[in-house]
């Protein structure tokens, strides 16, 4: 089932999410619905707070990035095959020189800005079978993971912008929270409490 994506301005997007256990109710259905919702919105990642659940769960599928002709064959293949579920994740290390990349977010449609992030991360998490992992990622995969991880920490990419950039997009963000935006996927807007 395609779920509505929570729009900028809803308090759930600013909450630090809670860990879950393997007996979380209807977990398999939740995962299926989240993947369906993400693909329906042409996303490459989706975090549980974006569907209104303040739990430490996010999904990533970087396959759409594999079409980028600026990447070499190996990078394209890596991105094409990277699909993961991250539960109760903790980034334990971020290192390297920060680099800018133009980011967007399904909860903040039609707003894209350069965000600086470190290129290498180490993350501990459990997968959909609640099997523990500790892995290191770099490049675009690390960037997507960091963006989704921020969601479970109650942080949006717009929080990482300079005060000048924030002022420049303030009106656009206000319009999003009021539902004054056209999107081709279902959203729930905090100022209207209505579903599209």
TrEMBL record:
Domain of life assignment: Bacteria
Q: Which cofactor does it need?
A: Fe(2+)
- Which reaction is the catalytic activity of this chain? N-terminal N-formyl-L-methionyl-[peptide] + H2O = N-terminal L-methionyl-[peptide] + formate
A Pfam family annotated for this chain is: Pep_deformylase
Q: What is its EC number?
A: 3.5.1.88
Top EC group: hydrolase
Q: How is the cofactor bound?
A: Binds 1 Fe(2+) ion.
What does the protein in this record do? Answer: Removes the formyl group from the N-terminal Met of newly synthesized proteins. Requires at least a dipeptide for an efficient rate of reaction. N-terminal L-methionine is a prerequisite for activity but the enzyme has broad specificity at other positions.
Q: Which HAMAP family match?
A: Pep_deformylase
Question: What is the protein name stated in its UniProt record?
Answer: Peptide deformylase
Organism field: Algibacter agarivorans
Q: Which gene encodes it?
A: def_2
């Amino acid at each position: 089932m395609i779920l509505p994506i929570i729009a900028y301005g809803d308090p759930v997007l600013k909450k630090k999410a809670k860990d879950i256990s393997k007996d979380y109710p209807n977990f398999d259905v939740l995962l299926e619905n989240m993947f369906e919702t993400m693909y329906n919105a042409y996303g490459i990642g989706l975090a549980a707070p974006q569907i209104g659940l303040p739990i430490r769960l996010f999904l990533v599928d970087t396959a759409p990035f594999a079409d980028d002709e600026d990447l070499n064959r190996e990078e394209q293949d890596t991105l094409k095959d990277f699909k993961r579920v991250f539960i109760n994740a903790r980034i334990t290390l971020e290192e390297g020189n920060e680099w800018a990349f133009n980011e967007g977010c399904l909860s903040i449609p039609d707003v894209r800005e350069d965000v600086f992030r470190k290129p290498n991360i180490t993350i501990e998490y459990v997968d959909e079978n609640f099997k523990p992992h500790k892995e290191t990622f770099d490049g675009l995969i690390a960037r997507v993971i960091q963006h989704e991880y921020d969601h479970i920490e109650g942080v949006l990419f717009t929080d990482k912008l300079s005060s000048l950039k924030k002022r420049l997009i303030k009106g656009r963000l206000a319009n999003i929270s009021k539902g004054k935006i056209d999107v081709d996927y279902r959203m729930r807007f905090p100022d209207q409490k209505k579903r599209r």
